[in-house]
Amino acid sequence: MMEQKTLGIMLPGTYNFGTDKAEDMEILAGHLKVKLAGSDEWMDIIASTTFHVAAHSSFDLEVLTPTDYCCSYLD
User: Model's pTM, two decimal places?
Assistant: First the structure.
């Protein structure tokens, strides 16, 4: 089975992403805050941190510094 991943860099700003599949977002470098769907709390995320996003949901990001990430899509 082939694993699906995306790699990228996010510039400072605010973003909202939706996802069909569950995913693990690994932050490789940078600093951001994330608020997952159904939560009112912002989590502070720095390099070497991974957070999980449930399938069929969305999440908000406040990217504070240029941030390098690897997103793994889970079945």
Answer: 0.89
pLDDT at 1 over 70: no
**Cα dihedral: 52, 63, 30, 54 (round 10):** 10
DSSP string spanning the chain?
A: -PPEEEEEEE-SEEEEEEESSEEEEEEEESEEEEEETT--PPEEEETTEEEEE-TTEEEEEEE-S-EEEEEEEE-
Query: Number of structural domains, the chain?
Result: 1
CATH number for the domain that contains residue 68: 2.60.120.10
Domain assignment of residue 50, given as a range? 13-74
